[in-house]
Amino acid sequence: MSSPPGSTPLTLAAAEHGSGRPVVILHGLFGSARNWASIAKRLAATHHVYALDLRNHGASPWAETMRYSEMAEDVRAFLRDRGLDGTATLLGHSLGGKVAMVTALRHPDDVARLVVVDVAPVAYPMTLLPYVRAMRTVDLDAMTRRSEVEAALSKAVPDPAVRLFLLQNLVVEDGRLKWRLNLPVIEREMPELSGFPEFPAGTVYTGPTLFVAGERSDYIRPEHRVAIERLFPNAGLATVPDAGHWVHAERPEAFLETLRPFLTGDGEPKA
User: Fold this and answer.
1) What's the rounded Cα separation, in Å, for the pair 221 and 166?
2) Dist CA 88 CA 85 (whole Å)
3) φ, ψ (nearest 5 deg) of residue 269
4) Are 37 and 62 in contact (CB under 8 A)?
5) How high is the pLDDT of residue 269?
6) Domain shared by 252 and 210, yes or no
7) Which has the closest alpha carbon to 9: 75, 53, 57?
8) Domain boundaries, position 175
9) Burial class, 266, CB count within 10 angstroms (exposed 0-12 / middle 13-18 / buried 19+)
10) Inter-axis angle of helices 160-167 and 146-153, to 10 degrees?
11) Cβ distance 149 to 180 under 8 Å?
12) Is pLDDT of 271 > 90?
């Protein structure tokens, strides 16, 4: 498929580790390459790992739109710029999993293998929208300490673990606190980000594909298997015990044990 009309792919920031078969990691909403540093370094013993920052996240450029087609073209441009097209495993979590799926469906020859972590090719409720709005309402100009921002978020984001995750996007520039997220655009594009694009009938990615679910998460449900099998006929599903949505962070050892055989080709997916 061609690039969306009028769009120019962005040059994404990347953290690079190790050598060997290439693996490209795409983080979830509010995340960045930093969130995957531990996993990336572990995989770097046997693989050349690139952890990317998606547009409007981390150190990557900001843009006024975040359509999945655009984000997929950003990733494809990265693969081609680095000479990875057709050889790399694309691994994405949550939002990054959707971007990875769209990239594989739009450009199947550019993706050697696909790993989708705790998300399905379906639309979800906009449950994360309140987090965006809460972050936008914090008056960073009136604050100098991280603890003040955390306190300001505590009512809208009562879970301390989620608050700490969001606060990873808080940085100091020129002596002032700021978010490394393009929050106005993320808020405006939340209907797009919560959904999943429609593809023409017959569109498939037939490469080896592994969906990894957290046992305690409901992001991949039995009723999603129809959509998964329609678009990814060679997909298998593995469940990581006692893991929630952030599978890689909550159960890193079990996650890696699930992942490694698939990355090497020793453990092909089974439906």
Assistant:
1) 26
2) 6
3) -65, 145
4) no
5) 52
6) yes
7) 75
8) 129-184
9) exposed
10) 130
11) no
12) no
Residue for token digits 């998964």? 228
Q: How far apart are CA 155 and CA 175, in angstroms?
A: 27
- Amino acid identity of residue 213, one-letter, is A
113 shares a domain with 73: yes
Separation between Cα atoms, residue 114 and residue 207, nearest integer Å = 7
> Which tokens is 233 given?
């006929």
Q: What is the pLDDT of residues 175-199, one digit of tens each?
A: 999 999 999 999 999 999 999 999 9
Per the domain annotation, does 1 fall within a domain? no
In the numeric block, the tokens 């469940």 are attached to: 239
Whether 115 maps to a domain, the answer reads: yes
Strands (E), the chain: 14-17, 21-26, 47-52, 89-93, 113-117, 170-173, 176-179, 209-214, 235-240
